[in-house]
Amino acid sequence: MGVVSEEAIDEFLELIDQVEEPLKKTFESVHQGYRREHLSRFLKARDWNVSKAHTMLVECLRWRVNNEIDSILSKPIVPSELYSCVRDSQLIGMSGYTREGLPVFAIGVGLSTFDKASVHYYVQSHIQINEYRDRVLLPSMSKKNGRPITTCVKVLDMTGLKLSALSQIKLVTIISTIDDLNYPEKTNTYYVVNAPYIFSACWKVVKPLLQERTRKKVHVLSGCGRDELLKIMDITSLPHFCRRGSSGSSHHTEGVDCFSFDHPFHQQLYNYVKHHYETQGHAEPAKQGSFHVGLPEPEAEIAKTIESELHKFENCNGLCQPAYDRKDVHETL
Questions:
Q1: Domain 6-67 has CATH 1.20.120
Q2: Which of 81, 88, 100, 185 is the S-S candidate for 41 at Cβ 3.0 to 4.6 Å?
């Protein structure tokens, strides 16, 4: 980190020390002892403009206070059958760690349907995973490795991506906006695998709308991406849909489907939340009801661009879509 960067962080620290008490308290819960690293993420997200980064962080802290985010890890989604439904339709899981100690999150973009629960349950679940990552997994790996580990990598499986995804764009962009505003720069790299032609068409028009910093993080791999991903992680950490012979997110070959509620990550997360609810001294079991979080306005330009591109395919009734070929898809990107 250069001198200019260090000076910006020092200036940022002086500003953040002046915020009111409720914001200071939630700030303590999120930086987990790594204040400079935490502030640097907001600075990166605002191109090292201290004033803009300060405004962004204060708004994030207010969002946390207003929506009681610090307590979200003691708000279980019950009954467990409902949580299982969320897991079956919002495909995300953690398959392991890179050799550098970064958590590997797998996301089934193409086969997530978001049709078995209300939008608030999906948002609650997503934020709980973020908070568990930041408050439990990353501090644990930082301690284990003797250095700050504050980011993760994400492997995005595009298997099954089709025109019906149009109905999910608003929810996906809401979740993405929550991450952009409140969890900036938490993903080190995005690896896209199993990409059909429809993804390449959408990516071509969306890519120019993204900041260069974000574009550089996205790597579209050929096929299931196994060989490339094995350069940064062991096979035991490889998502199930990247293993040779896998037919996509809906099946697994070697190892456990990391999207499943039965996977150790989801069992640990669910039991962690349930335990924290019980240790708060609640006499009654948790009742069904989602944890409502104020939903931001999604990024309109990107959402509209994707919608427009998908409508083009829809209007062609598939006639204008070239034959599916993973190698061709990779080369066009």
A1: no
A2: 185
